[in-house]
Amino acid sequence: MSFKFDLEEAVRFDKMDELASFRDEFYIKEGQYYLDGNSLGLLSKKAEQAVMDLLTSWRDYGIEGWMEGDHPWFTLSESLGDKTAPLIGAKASEVIVTGSITVNLHQMLSTFYKPEGKRTKIAADELNFPSDIYALQSQIELKGFNPDEQLIKAESVNGTTLTIEEIDQVLTDEVAVLLLPSVLYRSGQLLPIKEITKRAHEKGILVGFDLAHSIGAVPHELHEWEVDFAVWCNYKYMNNGPGGSGGLFIHEKHHGKLPGLKGWFGSDKNKQFDMAHTFTQGDGAGAYQIGTPNIFSTAPLIGSLELFEKAGIEKLREKSLHQTQYIADFVEKELIQFGMKKVTPSTDEERGGHIALQHDSAASICKAMKARGIIPDFRAPDIIRLAPAAFYTSYQDLYEAMQIVKEIMETETYQSFSNERNVIA
């Protein structure tokens, strides 16, 4: 694909875009180019209305809201799990909206990490997000082991991506559970989930994935691929708001397995209010809930999922790939001369929803971009992440934003900003 990188082309792409009308569903600040949807998605009008609707149900029903209204709170997690399932290729019974990504990971590890014999290790990767590693270390310690010995990490030769061969190195007969991200947060590399799962299963290893940087941007087939479990947050491409409730997937072949962390809302709903001290496990993924659902942190997802149902994850992926290719090609043509290096893999099969750029002055460049209305994402020590969101990023946005970035690099205006991260990068 060859881009011209002119305004006429951008306008033409926008006219051809089947998803262009969804932009009007979101609150977009005038004069701003928002390219940080992989950290926090923007607010949609439907998500806003969903929050207001549940506030109204609280006002009108009081405690009866648990069973009354358009979205009864008691089964809200299950109903939204049903609607999330198609986005990741799962059965409705395999998905639940609940907790946070780290809480859900603790639940899955408590359930699946059962050291026995020489299978006492957890395998991960050295490029993973810190919170996942913290959870793995904690679970190993809770079993009485030393994380320095029992947590093994696939090493990356280039420091930004992983090869299947590098992952293979940690798939030993001492490993009980493998946890990997679907998309590496620093580079935007999409890992071959199906192939990794197959290889791990052949060696008797249970497999889990962190979908934080792929759900809502990349379609998956978790049930067909026989992934054992997955966890995710919903505030990135899913546009569920800051700290919004997360989700988990557990393959139906494991349904009935006792949750490692039993909780009130993991009970069989028909018996939950019997108030018995004997835990009666709920059905499917719902059994792995822990506490009472946070209704107002879940509410925005009602509206967000309506938009996903209308747009379709395949069409969103198609536009995302086209827009990230636009950025990648612009970097190769116009920015490489300024020392900007693209570290995201080039093929569609290996690319998630964002483009990662490496530069020694990445922090100051991000600050210069923000001063000009572009919202990027900085990751220490030297990564700039740009994530167009298929729902609301127009091609004219991309054209204008990339022209500004080129100007910043040409004029070296970024040098007037400190090359240190802010408290929140």
Structure explained in plain terms:
By secondary structure, the protein is an alpha/beta fold. The chain has two domains: 7-30 and 312-416, Aspartate Aminotransferase, domain 1 (Alpha-Beta Complex); 49-310, Type I PLP-dependent aspartate aminotransferase-like (Major domain) (Aspartate Aminotransferase, domain 2), CATH 3.40.640. It has 13 helices and 13 strands. The strands form three sheets. It has a seven-stranded mixed beta sheet, with helices on both faces. Strands 9-10-13-12 form a four-stranded antiparallel beta sheet, with helices on one face. It has a two-stranded parallel ribbon with strand order 1-11. Helix 8 (193-202) links the parallel strand 5 (175-181) and strand 6. It is globular, with a radius of gyration of 22 Å. The relative contact order is 0.17. This is Kynureninase. Keywords: Hydrolase, Pyridine nucleotide biosynthesis, Pyridoxal phosphate. It comes from Jeotgalibacillus salarius. The modification N6-(pyridoxal phosphate)lysine is found at residue 236.
